[in-house]
Amino acid sequence: GTKSKPYNLFDTALKNAKDGDTIYILEPMAFLNAADNSPYIIDKAVTIKGDGNLFLIRSAGIVLEADVTFEDVVLNFGNRYHDAIFANGHTLTLKNVSCENGARQVDIFGGGLYMNGKNVAQSGCKAQIIMTGGGENFGNIYAGAMNGVYSGNVTISLTNLKAASNMVVYASGANETYVNLDDF
Fold first, then answer.
1. Whose CA is closest to 53, among 28, 78, 33?
2. pTM score > 0.85 for this model?
3. I want to staple 43 with a disulfide (CB 3.0 to 4.6 A). Which of 21, 38, 57, 65 is the partner?
Protein backbone atom coordinates (compact mmCIF):
# COMPACT_ATOMS: atom_id res chain seq x y z
CA GLY A 1 0.00 0.00 0.00
CA THR A 2 0.86 3.64 -0.42
CA LYS A 3 -0.62 6.90 0.86
CA SER A 4 -2.46 7.29 -2.45
CA LYS A 5 -3.52 3.60 -2.60
CA PRO A 6 -3.65 2.44 1.02
CA TYR A 7 -4.51 -0.99 2.32
CA ASN A 8 -8.03 -1.32 3.71
CA LEU A 9 -7.00 -3.30 6.81
CA PHE A 10 -4.26 -2.65 9.36
CA ASP A 11 -3.51 -6.37 9.45
CA THR A 12 -2.86 -6.38 5.69
CA ALA A 13 -0.56 -3.36 6.00
CA LEU A 14 1.46 -5.06 8.75
CA LYS A 15 1.70 -8.36 6.87
CA ASN A 16 3.10 -6.53 3.83
CA ALA A 17 5.40 -4.20 5.79
CA LYS A 18 9.13 -4.71 6.14
CA ASP A 19 11.26 -3.81 9.14
CA GLY A 20 11.72 -0.04 9.17
CA ASP A 21 8.46 0.75 7.32
CA THR A 22 5.83 3.24 8.46
CA ILE A 23 2.14 2.36 8.55
CA TYR A 24 -0.08 5.45 8.30
CA ILE A 25 -3.59 5.70 9.73
CA LEU A 26 -5.11 8.03 7.15
CA GLU A 27 -8.79 7.96 8.10
CA PRO A 28 -10.25 9.52 11.26
CA MET A 29 -10.52 5.99 12.67
CA ALA A 30 -8.83 2.67 11.96
CA PHE A 31 -9.78 -0.75 13.37
CA LEU A 32 -7.72 -3.73 14.39
CA ASN A 33 -10.35 -6.45 14.45
CA ALA A 34 -10.15 -9.70 16.39
CA ALA A 35 -11.64 -13.12 15.84
CA ASP A 36 -11.22 -14.18 19.46
CA ASN A 37 -9.65 -13.06 22.73
CA SER A 38 -6.08 -13.53 21.55
CA PRO A 39 -3.54 -10.72 21.68
CA TYR A 40 -2.31 -9.16 18.44
CA ILE A 41 1.39 -9.76 17.86
CA ILE A 42 3.42 -7.13 16.02
CA ASP A 43 6.44 -9.00 14.68
CA LYS A 44 8.09 -6.28 12.61
CA ALA A 45 10.00 -3.14 13.57
CA VAL A 46 7.51 -0.56 12.29
CA THR A 47 6.27 2.93 13.04
CA ILE A 48 2.50 3.46 13.24
CA LYS A 49 1.63 7.11 12.54
CA GLY A 50 -1.84 8.47 13.06
CA ASP A 51 -1.81 12.25 12.53
CA GLY A 52 -4.08 12.43 15.60
CA ASN A 53 -6.47 9.75 14.29
CA LEU A 54 -8.11 7.08 16.44
CA PHE A 55 -6.82 3.50 16.41
CA LEU A 56 -9.50 1.17 17.80
CA ILE A 57 -7.95 -2.12 18.88
CA ARG A 58 -10.37 -5.00 19.39
CA SER A 59 -7.76 -7.70 20.06
CA ALA A 60 -6.93 -8.74 23.63
CA GLY A 61 -3.86 -6.53 23.88
CA ILE A 62 -0.80 -6.00 21.72
CA VAL A 63 2.42 -7.97 22.21
CA LEU A 64 5.65 -6.92 20.52
CA GLU A 65 8.15 -9.25 18.87
CA ALA A 66 10.14 -6.29 17.52
CA ASP A 67 10.77 -2.61 18.30
CA VAL A 68 7.62 -0.58 17.55
CA THR A 69 6.84 3.15 17.54
CA PHE A 70 3.38 4.67 17.80
CA GLU A 71 3.28 8.35 16.83
CA ASP A 72 0.45 10.91 16.99
CA VAL A 73 -2.18 8.22 17.61
CA VAL A 74 -5.21 8.11 19.91
CA LEU A 75 -5.68 4.55 21.20
CA ASN A 76 -8.89 2.83 22.21
CA PHE A 77 -8.78 -0.79 23.36
CA GLY A 78 -12.27 -2.18 22.82
CA ASN A 79 -11.54 -5.55 24.45
CA ARG A 80 -11.27 -5.39 28.23
CA TYR A 81 -9.34 -8.65 28.35
CA HIS A 82 -5.65 -7.63 28.28
CA ASP A 83 -6.20 -3.98 27.44
CA ALA A 84 -2.45 -3.43 27.46
CA ILE A 85 0.65 -3.14 25.30
CA PHE A 86 3.41 -5.62 26.14
CA ALA A 87 6.88 -4.46 25.04
CA ASN A 88 7.94 -8.07 25.69
CA GLY A 89 11.63 -7.22 26.00
CA HIS A 90 11.66 -4.88 22.98
CA THR A 91 11.51 -1.10 22.57
CA LEU A 92 8.06 0.49 22.68
CA THR A 93 8.14 4.17 21.76
CA LEU A 94 5.03 6.30 22.21
CA LYS A 95 5.36 9.83 20.74
CA ASN A 96 2.37 12.09 21.39
CA VAL A 97 0.12 9.10 22.02
CA SER A 98 -2.92 9.20 24.27
CA CYS A 99 -5.90 7.01 25.01
CA GLU A 100 -9.37 8.14 23.99
CA ASN A 101 -11.19 10.03 26.71
CA GLY A 102 -13.83 7.81 28.34
CA ALA A 103 -12.23 4.61 27.03
CA ARG A 104 -10.37 2.00 29.03
CA GLN A 105 -6.99 3.03 30.34
CA VAL A 106 -4.23 1.13 28.57
CA ASP A 107 -1.50 -0.39 30.75
CA ILE A 108 2.04 -0.91 29.50
CA PHE A 109 4.34 -3.82 30.40
CA GLY A 110 8.08 -4.12 29.81
CA GLY A 111 7.75 -7.90 29.88
CA GLY A 112 5.42 -10.19 28.00
CA LEU A 113 2.02 -11.78 28.39
CA TYR A 114 1.91 -15.31 29.79
CA MET A 115 -1.10 -17.52 29.15
CA ASN A 116 -1.26 -21.10 30.42
CA GLY A 117 2.28 -20.70 31.78
CA LYS A 118 3.89 -19.70 28.45
CA ASN A 119 4.82 -16.36 26.92
CA VAL A 120 2.55 -15.81 23.90
CA ALA A 121 5.38 -14.37 21.76
CA GLN A 122 9.14 -14.47 21.29
CA SER A 123 10.65 -12.24 23.98
CA GLY A 124 13.55 -9.84 23.69
CA CYS A 125 16.01 -9.30 26.55
CA LYS A 126 16.09 -5.51 26.99
CA ALA A 127 12.78 -3.71 27.28
CA GLN A 128 12.58 0.02 26.73
CA ILE A 129 9.42 2.02 27.25
CA ILE A 130 9.78 5.54 25.91
CA MET A 131 6.87 7.97 26.24
CA THR A 132 7.28 11.52 24.95
CA GLY A 133 4.34 13.93 24.96
CA GLY A 134 0.79 12.69 25.14
CA GLY A 135 0.11 10.31 28.01
CA GLU A 136 -3.54 11.23 28.55
CA ASN A 137 -5.75 8.46 29.96
CA PHE A 138 -3.05 5.80 30.09
CA GLY A 139 -3.12 3.29 32.93
CA ASN A 140 -0.10 1.96 34.77
CA ILE A 141 3.37 1.00 33.60
CA TYR A 142 4.80 -2.31 34.83
CA ALA A 143 8.49 -3.18 34.36
CA GLY A 144 7.71 -6.90 34.48
CA ALA A 145 5.35 -9.29 32.71
CA MET A 146 1.72 -10.28 33.17
CA ASN A 147 1.20 -13.73 34.73
CA GLY A 148 4.86 -14.67 34.37
CA VAL A 149 8.46 -13.67 34.94
CA TYR A 150 10.48 -11.21 32.88
CA SER A 151 14.15 -11.26 33.88
CA GLY A 152 15.59 -8.90 31.27
CA ASN A 153 16.56 -5.29 31.80
CA VAL A 154 13.94 -2.55 31.60
CA THR A 155 14.40 1.16 30.96
CA ILE A 156 11.42 3.49 31.34
CA SER A 157 11.68 7.06 30.05
CA LEU A 158 8.77 9.48 30.50
CA THR A 159 9.20 13.03 29.20
CA ASN A 160 6.87 15.97 28.62
CA LEU A 161 3.69 13.98 29.33
CA LYS A 162 0.63 16.21 29.17
CA ALA A 163 -1.56 14.48 31.70
CA ALA A 164 -0.43 11.31 33.37
CA SER A 165 -1.87 11.93 36.83
CA ASN A 166 -3.47 8.47 37.07
CA MET A 167 -0.37 6.63 35.87
CA VAL A 168 1.70 4.67 38.39
CA VAL A 169 5.02 3.03 37.53
CA TYR A 170 5.67 -0.37 39.13
CA ALA A 171 9.06 -2.11 39.26
CA SER A 172 7.25 -5.45 39.04
CA GLY A 173 4.82 -7.28 36.83
CA ALA A 174 1.23 -8.17 37.60
CA ASN A 175 -1.04 -11.19 37.80
CA GLU A 176 -4.42 -10.71 36.24
CA THR A 177 -7.67 -11.40 37.99
CA TYR A 178 -10.05 -14.02 36.64
CA VAL A 179 -12.17 -12.78 33.75
CA ASN A 180 -15.17 -14.80 32.64
CA LEU A 181 -14.83 -14.50 28.88
CA ASP A 182 -18.40 -15.73 28.39
CA ASP A 183 -19.87 -12.93 30.52
CA PHE A 184 -18.73 -9.56 29.24
1. 28
2. yes
3. 65
